[in-house]
Every structure is written in C-alpha cells, then in structure tokens.
Amino acid sequence: MKLCILGFGAVGRGVAKVISMKKEEMKEKYGLDLKITAVTDTSGAAIYDEGLDPNLLLKIKEDTGKISNYPEYGISKISNMEVLHKVDFDCLIEVTPTDIENGEPAKSHILKAFNDKKDVVTSNKGPLALSFRELAESAKENNVQLKYEASVGGAMPILNFAHDTLPSCNIKSIFGILNGTTNYILSRMAKEGSSYEQILKESQEMGIAETNPAQDVEGTDAACKVVILANSIMNRDVTLKDVEIVGISKITQEAISLARNEGYLIKLIGEISEDTLEVSPRLVREGSPFAVDGTLNVATLKTDLAEDVTVVGKGAGSIETASAILSDIISIYKSKE
Amino acid sequence: MRLNLVLELLDIPGQLIDALEPIGRLGANIVTVIHQRDVKTERGTVPVQITIEGDKDTLDRVITTLENRNIQIMEVDGVLRKEKIRTILIGDIVDKDVKDALNRLNVFEGVKVVDFNLKMSDDPEKSASKIIIEADYGKRKDIMKRIKDVGISKGFLVINEV
Ligand SMILES: NC(=O)c1ccc[n+]([C@@H]2O[C@H](COP(=O)([O-])OP(=O)(O)OC[C@H]3O[C@@H](n4cnc5c(N)ncnc54)[C@H](OP(=O)(O)O)[C@@H]3O)[C@@H](O)[C@H]2O)c1
Description:
The structure holds two protein chains of two kinds. By secondary structure, chain A is of the alpha/beta class.
C-alpha cells in the first residue's frame, strides 16, 4: 500500500516513525507492505514511487527542517496539489494544520484524492468539523474510504469503537473530556491552587499549551470533536456553528475550591445529546469516570443496550496519534482483502 | 408493613426482572406489580408501580439494593423523592445580583434552593457562588437548563453538573 503524507509535523513524523518501527510486523501479521511514496511540508516535498526511507525522512527533517532536502528525491516549492497529481499512491495521509475558518487546504487535498479514487486517513479536524457531509458524500460517490479516528481524542479509541465494536447499539448521548490541554490546566489548578493565568503560562513553557492557546482554552478544539462525533456516530447533520461553546479562561480558583468542598471537580466537557450540542465547564464528581488527570481524554457513550461504556486514552502526542492513523490504514487494507 | 414504590425503568427487555430479583432474594413479598409498557414518562422510561411487604429492615435493604443497581425510585408511598442539583456561578455577586437569581430559581415548581455558599475574590468578577437545589425526582435536565438560562441572563458563567 502506497502512502502520500501531506504535512510532516508532530503527527506526520509520528506516522513515519511507527511505519519504521512496525514495517516487518505489518508484513508478518497482515501481509501489509507499507511504502511512503511522498511527504510534504512548507518547504516542498520528497517523492519516490518505489518508497522513501522513513528514517532518512525523519533525519533530514530533524537536521535541516526541510523535507525538500531529501537526497535525490527532494523537490522545493512544489504545491500539495501538484504532488497529489504527480505521485503514485493508494491512500492519502492528511496531517496538515487544522484550520477552522474554511478547513483549507486540507479539504481540497481530501476532495482531490477522492476524485482520483484514493482513500484518505486524516487527523485534521478542520474539514471534518466544517464540511462533514460534503466529504462523506464525496467519498461515497467515489467509492473510497475516509477514516479519521485520530481526529477525536488522538489515541483514545472512540469512532471505530462505536462503529465496529458496538454496532448493535444505538448511541443516545456522548459526554467527554475531549481536549488534553484544558484538562491538564484544570487538573493542575485543582491540585496546586494556582491561578489559571499561572498554570497556562507554565503549560506553554512545557509545550503542552500552544503559544496561541485560544483554540484549546476557548473550547473550539473540543467543539470540533463534538461535531465529528455527532456526525459520525450519532448521524446528525451539524457543523461547528451549531455548538454552544464556553471555554475555561474564566474559571477561577474560587470556583474550583467551592466545587472541591462538595466533592466535585471542574472539567471542560463536550456533550452530544438529544437536544444539546455543547462544550462547557461542568461539575464532575471526584472518583467518577470523568475525574481523570493530566492530558488524558475520556468519553462515556450512553447506549440503548449496553448502558454506559467509557473509553479513556492519550488525547494527543506524536506516536499516540500516529497509532490511530496506522490502525485506520490497516483497517482500510483489511477491508480490501 | 407495606410500601408502595414507583420505579422508573428503561423500556428494554429484562429491566423488570432485574428490579424484582433482589426484592424476593432479600426476603420481601411482592404484593402487586403494575407494569404498563405503553405508559411512558417524558424521558421515554416506563414507570412501574410495585407494592412490597416485609419488616422495616428488609424494606430498607430493598431500597438500598435497588439504588445500588441504579434502578431509579421515583416515589415512595405516594411521596415524590427529591434529588439535589449543584451549580457554581462565577461573577460579581453584587453587580450581577445573585439574590435575584436565587429568587427566580425558587419560584419554579418543585424547586427549592437549600444551600448557598460564597467564595469572594479581591477581583469581584472572580468570585464564585455555589447553589444547591432540591427538586422533584426526574426533573434534573429541565432544571439544569433553567439554572443556565437564569445564570446567563444575569451575566454569570454557569457551571452545571454533568
Ligand atoms: N499533535 C497532536 O497530538 C494531534 C492530535 C490529534 C490531531 N492532530 C491534528 O493533526 C494535524 C497535524 O498536527 P501536528 O501536531 O502534526 O501539526 P504541526 O506539528 O503543526 O505540523 C504541521 C505540518 O504541516 C506542514 N504544513 C503546514 N502548512 C502546510 C501546507 N499548506 N501544506 C503542506 N504542509 C503544510 C508543516 O510544515 P513545516 O514543517 O514546514 O512547518 C508541518 O510539517 C492537525 O490538523 C492537528 O489538529 C494533532
């Protein structure tokens, strides 16, 4: 199976790493021979139809910062569209940055791949949160697959879990902590009694929160995941503008300590239920499934037959997120055997 | 003694048996069971009326066991059970008039504010108020929405239970 990877940041590099780690295992276990035929970043691309060396890709990116420096097969200033046009591949791995204004350029990359009858695996929330139906329909029309497990909760299994493991059940509602950065900040505020501003600053220094933390702390990132879950698992036709969003930037130590006196914690919770689509700070009982610390993500699915089912996992991280992408690749491969 | 209970069951097979099983096992007698699957609550659940008989200790044990099994008891001997709903509001309590917010919650039917607690901050906007409300069983979702509406209309950040 030939892969074209657009974007070579934390997730793209994670994919190269797990492919390098698991290449032999994939062959032995599934008879799956994975080849990376193209990788792009903002400098350009590396393209080789017989397969690039994942370790060399990683080394070049680390040493020079530019994938276009790949020996012999590096090309500078080539657009992603040209790459998609030119390269021989079976499956697009779309891992460019999330854009929540129009989902671009990822949306165009994905649609182009579909039109060329290629499958797509992505971790990119933008196009899914803004144009879910359009993408799903295009994939269907072109008879190809779109998989995006990594886009919600990184390594926490939820989308494929609901579709493949609980197909007997109707999912009535989903409640979850869907953003690791805010969970980390709120957990530390509760433990240490420091202010929101102080913990945010430290999280930024540690690389857990981004320099511009707005998407995380204002709840937009979690809201994108709410939209993806609602569309994918609960068959709703909604986009980002349908979600009521309140972030955590106004949460005070006073509120956290009042909650603690009652045996409660404050967490940023995404809710998808019959008449509600929202992200907001909520009170959760200490000791309940939502009382997870650090950057963990958690979600409880209320089902008609199995009652509550809860999943927990690492919501972000290079290798963790890549694990979900590799699982999607394997599942596409298996579906074609 | 006899006890009349109204249980709230999900409309799926096996629920009634699950609810009745501990009653017999704990040594209480089941006198009547009225189970009409076509009568549903607004939440889509089925209310089941049962009358059980036994000594007080046995009946108490039955209630605890049912609760531990997450079987909801709506009424005991004709009295609606109450549940507690907690909320925290963040914002200036004087400026935004938290007292008026409480009054507006108290007027809802079956709702009573039973506890109120404050944590003041040097910056009044950062102050937090905790409100505990007692409400008739089964109205949680509806009441949480009302609390949110009242809180937001007063300019507070509302933190409801999950
Ligand atoms: N990080 C996580 O743990 C995680 C978890 C779940 C989902 N996601 C999602 O996965 C995606 C990738 O995340 P990331 O953390 O890997 O991001 P990142 O570290 O910022 O990397 C983005 C990569 O895309 C490249 N890029 C930027 N604009 C591009 C363009 N127009 N065309 C081609 N490449 C472009 C960048 O090039 P340069 O290297 O030249 O700058 C960089 O290599 C995002 O959509 C994110 O929301 C991430």
